[in-house]
Amino acid sequence: MDMCSLKALEADGSPSRSLLKLIGGQGCMVGELVEFLQIMGHTDALQCLKPPGIQILVQPQSVAVITGHNLRLSCYAVGASCVQFQWFKKTEEVHNSSSPDLVFSPVRLKDAGFYICRVNCGNEYEFSNWAQVDVLDVPPRYGLVSLALEGRPRVLIQPQAQRLLVGDLLYLECGAIGRPLPQYQWYRNGVPIKKATKRKYTVKNLLPEHQGRYRCEIFCNNERTWSNEVNVVVVENPCQSETKEPRISHEISGAMECSEDDFLPVDRDHSLEKPYATDKVALLIGNLTYRNHPQLKAPMVDVYDLTNLLRQLNFKVVSLLDLTESEMRNAVEEFLSLLHKGVYGLLYYAGHGYENFGNSFMVPVDAPNPYHSGNCLCVQSILKLMQEKETGLNVFLLDMCRKRNVHDDAMPNVVLQVTANIVFGYATCQDAEAFELSSSGFTNGVFIKFLKERLLEDEKITVLLDRVAEDMGQFDPTKGKQALEIRSSLSERRSLTDPIRPRDYSDAAEAQNLLWSKAHELPESKLLDFECGVQIKMDFAAEFSNVLVIYTSIVKKSEEMLSCQAHITNLPWDLDVDPKLMNKETLEETGSFLLSGSLPHHCLYTRLSSLQKLKEELAFTVCLQVQFNSLDELVQWNMDVSIGKPLTAKLDLNRPTRKNSCQLTCFIPHSPSTSPSHSPASDRRFHSQDPCIPQQYANPYLNVCEPLHGAVGGYGDYQLFGDHTYQYENLPCSPFLNPPSIPIETSDDIDDMQNEFMNSLQLYNHS
């Protein structure tokens, strides 16, 4: 080392490096510099010149989580010899925390704080970076159990509107989960408030100038979102109320007192009061892996992003990928069972589709080629059943083509009620295709790219969609080819941000809500103890309501073991999992691209999709293989594990579809629970054979359906490369065309995919 010249150091903007380069230019050796520093007593500088001993490879990361969830802080390091770990909470040692992972199962409020890990190697030690754990005390709410920690922050605690007196204390709170720890900035009347960068914002001794509109901006990595905007009213006279105004005030013994006579009634326009929902329920379906039609990409990312945003608006969301006809019908039936008077219902579909005679049809993944109305689900029939529930708002977002299906001559007779609570948002115009953007990675379609930028705005839903349409109209790659179409009978200012005021439900409805909620619970983490002394940690994450990721890590093993690995085997045949995609070291290798930034590293991952096909409990074998030295063969131990029916497997969507028992709807030719003819590709014969009586679609309002994904036939597919347009014949329409807007994990890999996507936009026309 003494003969090493300092000229090897490059000056890259650091004053210290520049000084070292200057000294090196004078012929000074490292050994000489060490002697000078020892004489001068610069021990800190000497530490920098020491050869590396301990190298911390993975630093613990600050994070915000919900009480009751599981959390893991990780610190991985290497050294000249065996390294040891000890975790601290501030200055106090954490009991039983001598492994690289500090696990909280589950997280409690008292676990909030700052953590650091000390790594020992012989007589040397190094400290990791500090990691802050922020724990949000959020009451149990539908769907939260399936939230994963991701780069995009998710707002779970919203600020509340307040009416206060001068001199009172203002307390506003906003809470979001995310990894790394979300950052905050409060605004009043659209202007940032100085030094208001915490989750909680307080003002002592309120003054009239503190009155205004408040909201908080939350950002995590490059992702940003907003809380709801709330009004803070500051009243100088304590006698003022929301329904009466003071006329006379009396000051007695220095205190302000008001009598009943001091109030005059104030006329209020009750029509301006904000509407509310008795509950909010959303069903999101993304079909991309078609058996007989072109595969799609965007539905997966679109459903994922929309799920995250709707949950911030307190929707009960179920997100499903790749459903067959019977599974789609059963999912719709479960969705309808949650709708009651005053409930806001939202249905989003992304996949192939078409529109005939004003009726829109969603195409399942097992639809034959060509398909007919008997193989598909009619959106208008679903709407009719929703209307019978007396819902407060019905929103349909259809991200598919709306071309006519020349192979289907049926004209369904669906008679809808005349109500003022229906909104249709079509990703494309009538008799037009919807597009998805082609890139090497996973990106949003055009519709969701712009919708997700505005979905959290506190605006009437039709106003919000109008703005999305304007944004889409400025997007050059699809200008003149795809435009958002909005159909609405909405007469009130209904918004997706409207508050929820629950009402009393029947015992049957409560039981159904409980079942639906349980269908989003993740299995509990497991610690598997093997006879050889090895301990395996098994954790779970939900990518969608029917997609589960299992990841395992070795918590404890003997130092005598040269190698040790645990693999999952013997999964049920129902799931049809490719063994080559199991037990991978990265999530991307399993086909999961949306959780890559939210789960711990140094694990083995297995992704299980299509959980709705699971007929029995999910049972499998964990195979542990150990090698004690390089000359020994592998020694194997097996352990059988059962985790019950996870996520939507509890809903039994694979059951034979039941006919609707309601006499008012069972004669609808294309109701979600009946179908006019047998589907050649369906798994079970359950369709009604009643003939469909052709009848001209008579209700002008009901022309809200537009051909989403094109029908199979001679509709042109376009692929755009720069200024050139190529047309392909006889390709089925692919669903929506949404540019990049993935509120998924914001890992570097995802960002790179996004950049590549933007640099090489290619559009595929969906027929």
TrEMBL record:
It holds the Pfam family Ig_3. GO terms for molecular function: cysteine-type endopeptidase activity. Transmembrane segments: none annotated. PROSITE patterns: CASPASE_P20, IG_LIKE. This is Mucosa-associated lymphoid tissue lymphoma translocation protein 1-like isoform X3. InterPro entries: Caspase-like_dom_sf (IPR029030), Caspase-related_regulators (IPR052039), DEATH-like_dom_sf (IPR011029), Ig-like_dom (IPR007110), Ig-like_dom_sf (IPR036179), Ig-like_fold (IPR013783), Ig_sub (IPR003599), Ig_sub2 (IPR003598). It comes from Carassius auratus (Goldfish). GO terms for biological process: proteolysis. Coiled coil: none annotated. It comes from the Eukaryota. Residues 52-128, 153-233 form the Ig-like domain. PANTHER family: MUCOSA ASSOCIATED LYMPHOID TISSUE LYMPHOMA TRANSLOCATION PROTEIN 1/PARACASPASE, MUCOSA-ASSOCIATED LYMPHOID TISSUE LYMPHOMA TRANSLOCATION PROTEIN 1.
